[in-house]
Amino acid sequence: MKQLLCQVTALESLSPAVFRVVLTLPEAIEFNGGQYVQVVMGERDKRAFSIASCPSQITEIELHIGATADNPYAMQVIEKARAEGELEVEVPLGTAYYRADSQRPLVLIAGGTGFSYTWSILQAHLKSGSTRPVTLYWGGRQAQDLYYHDKLIALSETYPQVHYRPVIEQADASWNGAIGLVHHAVLAEQSDLSEADVYVAGRFEMVRVIRDDFHAQGLPLEQLYGDALAFI
Prior knowledge:
Helix content is about 25%, strand content about 35%. It is an alpha/beta fold.
């Protein structure tokens, strides 16, 4: 892990509540898909965000930060990046990263901006050339929360091993995907999780339920990955 002062080279909106932040690193680093950074706001104030970029990008890091006015934890980071044009980060961190040497199918589960964690893993998996099947379940409240929806559809049409399952809680008549909670959609489709590697990112409450319910359905806990698991 290194502490680096990075230049903010892109800051744009991906949705009304999500920002894409690209940081150019002062030196090349190596990281694994699924690791995270801590933005250093103060000596005792470090804020964690998943890396969204592919590990092959060794000179820059992409973050997807969900930030609204009522979420100062994230919004203050966006304001600092915008005002100062640089962020100090600790990188890389986390042990719930992509296991490239496994032979099991992948099930990726994301709630909201937890997608950035699964997006990095998905890119690393495709970059590896592996043909192991990977299914990505992405849940949000509304369709607009799934800001890479069209990109994921195109990806699933390009790579036969990639399967994309969008899930939203509030849908109108035009929605063609699943409706409800994302982990319910996984359990409805995945009858046997004992032979899968499951990667999960989202609210702690969601991760806790997934851990308990999936383990009850036969998923060995050593095949479940998510940094939130260390805190619940």
